[in-house]
Recover the amino acids of this structure.
């Protein structure tokens, strides 16, 4: 069973070398790049990875393009983000699981490090990601352009050992990424015909905070968990403000 590790990148020079090093157990390592403007490609090649480039449209289409690019060359793909690391334990477990019949994919837990803190509550662990996929039996739903959803022909199993995910280095990086995600989410709601109601600007952020901090036990991370809950509530509010702007633009 030939296994390819595929790393999606765009301007990931700070992470790419360490990420490639962590997936050397795979039969081939491919950096699937969205035409980075920094040193990502040069560093990936220096680390021994094969580099392919594809214009980015959205996350689901980019992963599907990567799967298509290796069809007929490998049997399984392990998708790894540049800010993730594969531990030796996860590498060994992945190798073992792909030999089992009846599975088209395996989901993998993630340990998220946010602003340097290992984050266990608030939905940040186990944070399962279906990333170990059998080529020809798995793809990503093209209608889900962010927070991708896999479609599998056979069963999906669950691995025990997690990715290590250096998710957000600081608050500035968090704001940058969440602006992108909230814009995507607002566009999806707009395309579904959902109009914001006045109460949404208060109730939805409150619900998001309660869900993160109380229901998903963000409180176990103390002040850090409180901070994360408040930040996620802020971007829930931004999502509905953006949604309002989309409807106003359509009217005018």
């Amino acid at each position: 069973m030939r296994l390819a590790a595929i790393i999606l990148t765009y301007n990931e020079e700070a992470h790419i070398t360490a990420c490639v090093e962590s997936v050397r157990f795979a039969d081939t390592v491919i950096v699937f790049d969205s035409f980075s403007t920094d040193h990502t490609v040069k560093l990936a090649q220096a680390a021994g990875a094969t580099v392919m480039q594809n214009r980015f449209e959205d996350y689901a289409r980019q992963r599907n393009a990567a799967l298509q690019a290796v069809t007929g060359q490998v049997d399984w793909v392990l998708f790894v983000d540049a800010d993730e690391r594969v531990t030796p334990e996860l590498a060994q477990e992945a190798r073992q699981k792909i030999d089992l019949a009846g599975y088209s994919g395996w989901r993998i837990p993630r340990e998220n490090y946010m602003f340097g803190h290992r984050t266990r509550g608030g939905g940040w662990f186990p944070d399962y990601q279906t990333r170990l996929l059998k080529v020809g039996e798995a793809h990503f739903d093209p209608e889900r352009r962010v927070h991708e959803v896999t479609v599998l022909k056979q069963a999906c199993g669950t691995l025990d050992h997690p990715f290590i995910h250096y998710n957000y280095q600081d608050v500035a990086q968090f704001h940058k990424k969440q602006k992108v995600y909230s814009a995507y989410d607002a566009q999806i709601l707009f395309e579904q015909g959902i109009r914001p109601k006045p109460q949404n600007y208060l109730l939805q952020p409150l619900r998001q905070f309660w869900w993160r901090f109380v229901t998903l036990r963000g409180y176990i991370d103390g002040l850090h968990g409180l901070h994360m809950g408040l930040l996620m509530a802020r971007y829930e509010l931004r999502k509905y403000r953006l949604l309002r702007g989309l409807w106003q633009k359509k009217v005018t």
In short: The chain has a mean pLDDT of 95.
